[in-house]
Every structure is written in C-alpha cells, then in structure tokens.
Amino acid sequence: MSMQPPGWSGQPLPAPQPFPGYPPPKAPPKKRWYGVGAALLLVGLAVVSFGVFGLAKVFDGAPDAEHTFANGEMKTVHFDAGETKVIFVADRGEHDTGQCSISTPTGSDDDIKMDNYEGSLTINQWQALFTVTARTAADYAVTCDGASSDQFGVGGDAKATTLVGGLFAVFGGGFLCVLGIVTLVVIALLRWRRKA
C-alpha cells in the first residue's frame, strides 16, 4: 500500500515556497514638502502680522487724554476734510448716555454729519456712541450731556469689522503657522526614518 495522500497518485509533493518577506521600504518624502511646510509657516506669519496691524489700528482708535472731557464740558477737536471720528463714553453701565452736539466754525450743519454708531464696539473701557464725519477741515467744538459721572472722548474711526477681522487673522495665521511647523517636523522625521 502506498503512503501517498489521496488525489496525488504518484506525483511528488511540491517543494515548499519561500516566505514572501517584507515589502520594499517606502521612499522618503520628496524635499519639496519642506517647501510646503515653509510656505505655510510664512503665509501664517504674514496673516498674523496683518491681524496684529488691524488690532493695533482699532486700539489706536481709543480716545487719548488730550481728547477726553467730562459731562457738559466742551472739547475742541480738529477734523480734516472727509475725516470720520468716533465719540466714545467711558464705562457706560446701565444708564442712558445722553446726547452730543458739535458746533461748526461756520455755524452751518452742512459742514458735519453725526450718526449713531452702528453696532457695538468697546475698546478698553471706551464704548462707541456716535460717528462724526466732517466735510470741511476745521476745529469743531464737541459737547456731550449725560450722567454727571460720564466721561466722554473723541477717537479715531474704529470699526468692529476691523476688530473681528484682526482676531480672525491672528487665529487663522496662528493655525497656519502650527500647520507649517507640524508639516516640517513630520517630513523631517519621515525622511530620517526612511533613509535607513
């Protein structure tokens, strides 16, 4: 009796096959990925700097000591033709802030335009109340009547959109910087591991 397994009538068993082994190692990433990481980092830094510039412009809009005045006092402020400034109140709280008036050198209301500030903007303790646009360059007298403790000031043309845009630019640029740094580190590690 033969010791062959059934179905192998007289044929020898096939030779064992060698183990397939490991696949060839992956090639290291191309060096151009360093350029991608560096570009992300540079773009991120540029966006952050634009955001910081925008935020600085907003915070420069707050009234300085020369342009602040108490309730009922008059403050003379110079406007260039077409320039817009904002009237602020400090620490407004819950009470109504009253009204402000501007007297022009010519006595004509056509020289100046004053509107309620659209939206809400607070810079440090200063809250925006009115926007004032002068049609002609001159010194204008500003007076505000409100609560006896109110402190008013005239500052630059600060816009809430500039503040929000500056914040988004700082955070978005920061994200791009982090993404660029992570890209550079990952590419460096992969190139180092796959060289061996």
UniProtKB/TrEMBL annotation:
Q: Which residues cross the membrane?
A: 33-56, 167-190
Instruction: State where composition is biased (Pro residues).
Output: 13-24
Keywords assigned by UniProt, alphabetized: Membrane, Transmembrane, Transmembrane helix
**UniProt name for this protein:** Serine/arginine repetitive matrix protein 2
State the taxonomy lineage.
Answer: Bacteria, Bacillati, Actinomycetota, Actinomycetes, Mycobacteriales
Q: Which organism is it from?
A: Mycolicibacterium fortuitum (Mycobacterium fortuitum)
Region feature (Disordered):
1-24
User: The organism sits in which domain of life?
Assistant: Bacteria
